[in-house]
Design a protein that fits this description.
The chain has helices at residues 13-18, 79-84, 133-146; strands spanning 10-11, 24-33, 39-52, 55-63, 75-76, 88-90, 95-98, 108-111, 115-117, 125-127. The strands form 3 sheets. The chain has a 5-stranded mixed sheet with strand order 2-3-4-1-5. The protein contains 3 helices and 10 strands, in the order βαββββαβββββα. It is of the alpha+beta class. InterPro entries: Peptidase_aspartic_dom_sf.
């Protein structure tokens, strides 16, 4: 997952173990606030080669603390990765372009699932994936009923 709201790259402890990446200790632990309001303490990092859309980079990633069982996010690529791959995020078209022409790389567009706003509000986005159309129509009908109240 690429996350422009993250100041660092993070890799899951289970993935570091599974791929047998070398771990390196940090001189001091780093405390980072998480999306759920908690604080995670990082004590080590791993240097890994990662490729996205054929664009490869060696990056350093903090190793998420050992209590990551059940956490389904293997790697979070934050601002350091976005910077070194010269990423441009197109929110409306749900795509990210990576690659640095300055070092001879082709620019690659990676498309992700698309979303749209409701015709009744801009509180959240809805998937345009046809597999979810039934659920989206149901939500839209409820919002239409509430529209005079809102």
């Amino acid at each position: 997952m690429a996350d422009q709201g993250s100041d660092t790259n993070v890799i899951a402890n289970w993935l570091v173990k599974k791929l047998n990446f070398d771990r390196r200790p940090l001189a001091d632990k780093i405390a980072i606030g998480t999306a759920d309001g908690n604080t995670a303490f990082y004590r080590e990092y791993a240097s890994i080669q990662i490729g996205v859309g054929g664009i490869w980079r060696m990056i350093d990633a903090l190793v998420r603390p050992h209590n990551d069982q059940g956490h389904n996010q293997a790697i979070m690529l934050g601002l350091p990765w976005l910077h070194i791959v010269n990423a441009v995020i197109d929110v409306k078209n749900s795509s990210i372009t990576v690659g640095d022409e300055g070092i001879g790389e082709e620019r690659i567009i990676i498309e992700t699932p698309r979303f749209t706003t409701s015709k009744y509000h801009t509180l959240t986005l809805y998937s345009t994936d046809s597999r979810y159309k039934k659920q989206i129509k149901m939500v839209e009908r409820k919002l239409e009923e509430l529209a005079p109240v809102i």
